[in-house]
Structures are given as structure tokens and as C-alpha cells.
Amino acid sequence: MADGTRVAYAVTGSGPPLVVSPGWLSHLELDWAIPAQRLFYGSLSSGRTVVRYDRPGCGLSDQYSGPRSVEHELATLGAVVEAVHLERFDLFGWSLGAPVAARWAADHAQSVSRLVLYGGWARGSAIGDEVSRTHLLGLLVDHWGLGSDVLTELFAPEADPGTRRVLAQYQRAASSAQTAAGLLDLAYRIDVSESLNRIGAPTLVLHRDQDRAAPPPQGRLLAERIPGAQLVELSGRSHLPAMGDSRAVVDQVRRFLGLRRLREAAPVGLTARQNEVAALVAQGLTNREAAQRLHLSERSVESHLERIRLRLGFRSRTQLAAWYATQHPSSRGEVP
């Protein structure tokens, strides 16, 4: 970025570019370790080159302690677009990323081919009342652990307990309490209602009908204010697009982008021995320690790990540990 801040981004898939403006918090590496999120972005990557990024202060991007504003969000998106050398692309914004994407489409009409907004809002002041907003902001600053648990229950009520636990850990790994509070405050302050009528790109607005984090009337307002926008209200309570009936979200996005419907994904599993190795990695054991525990050679453990990484598409032990925790929520890394 212009101030020297480095923004991490990831590119997956092949085809015309689809840039994703992220929700409240993100972590590019850990995204791929949570099966539901990996499946979601993987499904979007079939037929599209998906570009994801962590905003400053989140995930793999540089730390940032400056003010949070729409202008800073737009500058971040612009830096990613420039780094990937994109002139025209489809844009998908979800949660906090939805109003940011809408504002970008209004200000940079020539760059956006198609626009998808999921779980978004036009006016942040419509998200809850002043008392609840103040309470949540204070909770994040004073009790980040409890705050992340509360927001996970709000964002992913349909997820199983193990996945919710991992999502709360994900949020804490993705940012500091101060960054989380600063971005939530921006979510409450952002207002793009006056920019919506300047959007010329074909637009799809998706919103779940029981989303408690983003009021459904705000999704309707986005669709009403954007010329020619299509509104699709989906059944469900989850705010995160990868949770709940994520297949419905993927199908709608792919249909709008002119892509074929995907077949059901095959379940991903490991052999019994690979599962044992994964359990020890989740405990934090080294290859040598795992080999001693399983009465194997260290080279054999390394081979099992390589096969696990290839099978699951992981690049690090951190991703593998996070994935194992979602598959075995009560095991805490114990060998089966």
C-alpha cells in the first residue's frame, strides 16, 4: 500500500478473476484448514481465479494500528487489484466486505464486470441498537476470548460445537482484540447508501432470512437501491457464507457468474495411520516425537505427513492441526 503496509493475498483456481472482499476478520492460511471454508472457496475456484486477501492487521498481512475507514478499505482492495494486475474482474463482498465492494463498484464502474453481495448492509447503524453495539465493542476489548465466543454463536449458529470452537480460535488467531474492535466499529459506522444508485454492474444480492448479524431488511435495501439488482433470500441462520447451507450460496453465485453447477463434493478422510499422525501433530509433537510414540521411523512419519498434505491440500502443520480439531472436537489431539 502507499504507506508501506504489506497486504497478503492468495490466488486459487483458474479462469476469469473473482476478487473476494472479506468479512470482519480473515486469515488466509487458516481459512484453508477449516473444511467448510476450504470447500466454499474451492467451489468458487472451479472456473474462476479467486483472489482473497487479509486486510492490514488481520491474518498474514502487516500489523496496522491506524484509523479504520471506508477509504482505507478501498485502498487495501485497490492495492490487491494492482498487485494481481487486474483491470476488470467479478467482485464478491460478504459481511463487512459487502458495503466495501458496493462502494468500490460505484467508484470504479469500469473495473467490475459483475457484483455479488452476501450478508451485507447499506447502513451499519442498522445493525442492532446502540446498547448492544456498545456492549459488544467493550466485550471485544476487555474479554477477547469471551467476545469471540459470543460472536461465533451469532455468526455460525448452525455449525456443530467443534466447528464453532475452531471458528472462535480462528478469530483470535486472525487479529488482536484492538483490531477486532476497530473493524466491528467500522462495520457499525459504514454507510454506502448514497453510493448504491451509481452501481452499473449486474448485481446479485444474497441474504439469509434469519441472519441475526446482518438484518435481512438491509439486504433488501441494497437490492432496492442498486439499479437492476437481483435479490435472493436464502433459508438459514448463519451469517458466514461457508456455514449452514453453503451449497445454496455457492449454487447461486455460480449461476449468476455463468458457471455450471458442481457435483456434491466427496468426503475427505485419512487412513487409520494417517489419522494417528494427524492427532499427534495436533498435540504439537515433532516428527521425531510422533515416530517414537507410534514406534515408527522418523522418515515414515514424514512420508505420512506429506501424503496427508497432498490429500488435504494443506501447506503447514497449523492447518492440519486446525482441521483435525474440527473433525475430532472432543479429542484435543489425543491419538484415537
UniProtKB/TrEMBL annotation:
SUPFAM superfamilies tied to this protein: alpha/beta-Hydrolases, C-terminal effector domain of the bipartite response regulators
Molecular function as annotated in GO: DNA binding; hydrolase activity
GO biological process, one term: regulation of DNA-templated transcription
Residue ranges the record marks as coiled coil: none
The HTH luxR-type domain, residue ranges: 263-328
Pfam families, per database record: Abhydrolase_1, GerE
InterPro entries: AB_hydrolase (IPR050471), AB_hydrolase_1 (IPR000073), AB_hydrolase_fold (IPR029058), Sig_transdc_resp-reg_C-effctor (IPR016032), Tscrpt_reg_LuxR_C (IPR000792), WH-like_DNA-bd_sf (IPR036388)
Entry keyword annotation includes Hydrolase: yes
Domain of life of the source: Bacteria
This protein's UniProt keywords: Hydrolase
The protein, known as: Alpha/beta fold hydrolase
Phylogenetic placement of the source organism: Bacteria, Bacillati, Actinomycetota, Actinomycetes, Micrococcales
